[in-house]
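thought: fold this chain, then report.
action: predict
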Amino acid sequence: MINANTGATVRVWGRKNIAVIFKEGCHISVMVFYIFQDKSFAGVPMKSYNKYKGCEKMKNKKKEPMKKSFGYAFEGIFTCISKERNMKIHCVMAILVVAAGTLLHISVTEWCICLILFGLVMALEMVNTAVEAVVDLVTEERKPLAKIAKDTAAGAVLIAAIMAAIAGCMIFVPKGILFISNLG
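observation:
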């Protein structure tokens, strides 16, 4: 609950404790109030700290130009393509689908479906790569939660790839059969 007058966040634990969190700019103060049986209370300051180092500097810092942001994004795409085997496989499949779509003259709607599915599968592969990198950065040990994070991200890519393959078959198999029958 947030008090509109003070800007403080109030958290209640059980019947006897209330924590009040005051935020002013980058500064945060936490005070815990103990409520006694006679309904009187006592406040005890618990913590007082800045949100993060260099907070005041961050307030005045200008954002980087958009050109730099796009540069970082493209660097991430090229890094993923160059270092991740599965991303290379997705790129090869996308090239094959574009070649087949051009050869079989698929409709604009079918092109849109293919492009959306390319984007979905490749974006999920990049998120999977990022999750794996962060987990590896945080821990070198084998931990159950790290395994869950990595496996779940990989599962998301697999589901998207399977659905893309099914949609691709629905688009390309009938057109491929028609194309082959017209050759003979």
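thought: worth noting. The two ends are 74 Å apart (CA to CA).
final: tokens above.
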